[in-house]
Amino acid sequence: MTLLLGVEGVTKAYPGVVANSDVSFQISEGEIHALLGENGAGKSTLVKMIYGLVKPDSGRMTLRGQPYTPAKPAEARRQGVAMVFQHFSLFEALNVAENVALGMENPPPMKALAGRIREVSEEYGLPLDPSRMVGDLSAGERQRVEIIRCLLQDPKLLIMDEPTSVLTPQEVEILFKTLRQLASEGTAILYISHKLEEIRSLCDEATILRRGKVVATCTPRDRTAREMAELMVGTVLTPPVRAGRTKGDVALEVSGLSVASPIPFGTALKAVSFTVRQGEVLGIAGVAGNGQDELLLALSGELRSQPEAVKIAGVAMGDTGPNDRRRAGLVAAPEERLGHAAAPDMSLVENALLSGVVRQGLTARGFIDWAATEAFAAGIVKAFDVRTPGTHVAARALSGGNLQKFVVGRELSQTPSVIVINQPTWGVDAAAAAAIRQAILDRASGGAAVVVISQDLDELLEIADDFAALNGGRLTPTRPVDGLTVDEIGLMMGGTHGMEVAHHG
Ligand SMILES: Nc1ncnc2c1ncn2[C@@H]1O[C@H](COP(=O)(O)OP(=O)(O)OP(=O)(O)O)[C@@H](O)[C@H]1O
């Protein structure tokens, strides 16, 4: 195969950490290449250099044998390098074609563009109506907008950063078909993911990073997921264990919870009802945008409801705010780490204070007890293996997965009686995900009632006792996890979201 991209001895340092150290690897045309590594291993930094967002300190890159030094993403795109990010940069109040036009240097007239979008979406089995408002689209459909925007530039290298975290199992299959088709036409794909089984089924080669260095390369098909995870962390892994648990009294009771969404294009909750006992883990699945964020807000107290709609240990608290609920024993970790769960420019110590102040006794006589706060933050960093130069570092300087470990650790460290957590291991590597799941199970064994909202079905099947799915703001009846199949769950989540027609012929 013809060599497309060569990366030779690339190094990039940030204050206190070498994010990439003498990294070399190659991708050929038509190759699907995985980039693997623990949280903070340097994967995002590496692809940001390839996409022109970050400049290497040293080393060199070549594209089709020529020196390649993109100073900005527009230059990378001009040379055939495209990227689909974890977070979509779309305008909800504009339609699909208008959004695509915004990302183009010289967009054609709207009508011609809509026609091109239709062609590309049919050719690659990614159904998408150019005239629909982005605000009305599911997460999977929004991702298709981004992918089609890239495909219209006829990329030679397509970079994808954890693309499947927002998709149902059925949508993942469809995406993989599209990626395989692109590869068969000669497009190279650089694929970042923590989902190792998916990597085994999709990728031809893998480069594994650990603490900024290339530590191994492998052919994913020839390895087990566990072998790859062990190459990433350099040690042997143990899967989480469910200790026997006794269920106690009802700790959280939600009945007929209906609230309008405070989020633009959000989803109102419609008569949501469930109960969780002490020692019990309820898993709530759903494709993003079906009321998960609203449910978390309504349980945390950021969104108020009728008093009787949310009862904590039998006390009606639907009309109370977050601090009252924290005092009553409920902690909550929202999905969005930067901005919602953590203040980006504040240090980890300050961020520990934000949510720990009520339950951890971090004030004395009206003053902040900084020594206690620092000790609390340092304890979280240690217990949850948060990789950071120190607790003085700003939240935004942590890699995505490490910030996630910090945010989850901060909530679980407050001896809660009710835990509500949205996407607990989002973007977290396999070893750290296992540690977070174990910590959740341990809290449940200790008598906490847990609600885990997640799009990762394997995760829910691993830790939840009971299962329900959110669909358009309604919650399905709760079912015991034992005996449920992934297909049944997919249907509870709303199946394929109109994707049945994809890839016919
Ligand atoms: N803008 C920045 N300022 C300071 N440090 C940074 C910055 N960006 C990344 N880092 C540090 O560089 C290292 C590599 O981070 P990077 O985001 O590349 O990791 P990653 O492998 O993509 O991790 P994850 O799987 O968690 O997304 C981390 O230690 C991170 O804290």
From TrEMBL:
Molecular function GO terms recorded: ATP binding; ATP hydrolysis activity
GO cellular component, one term: plasma membrane
Cross-referenced Pfam families: ABC_tran (PF00005)
Key words of the record: ATP-binding, Cell membrane, Membrane, Nucleotide-binding, Repeat, Sugar transport, Translocase, Transport
Keyword check for Translocase: yes
Cellular compartments annotated: Cell membrane
Top-level division of the source organism's lineage: Bacteria
UniProt protein name: ABC transporter ATP-binding protein
PANTHER family listed in its UniProt record: CARBOHYDRATE TRANSPORT ATP-BINDING PROTEIN MG119-RELATED (PTHR43790), GUANOSINE IMPORT ATP-BINDING PROTEIN NUPO (PTHR43790:SF4)
Membrane topology field: Peripheral membrane protein
